[in-house]
Amino acid sequence: MDGGIFMAREQEAQRQAAVREAAMASIRRKELSQMAGGHAVMAGLMGFGEAAEGRGLFPMIVHGAKLFCIAFAFLVPNYLVWSLLL
Q: What is the DSSP string of 7-48?
């Protein structure tokens, strides 16, 4: 009878070890996927930064977009005050 209980415990330990390994592999895959996504974002931003410098059409468009955002940030609050409060 002791042999049967020992075998059952051993089988359960092996099953739990297999489940643990599968869970750890899933966690590792998820971490690698998140890291790869971060690297892709950084590579894209670095490429954008290099392309936005210098001369040409793209740097002019980026500069215009920056000026538009600055003007928008200054004008919209004033417009909202004029239209809602005055």
A: HHHHHHHHHHHHHHHHHHHHHHHHHHHHHHHHHHHHHHHHHH
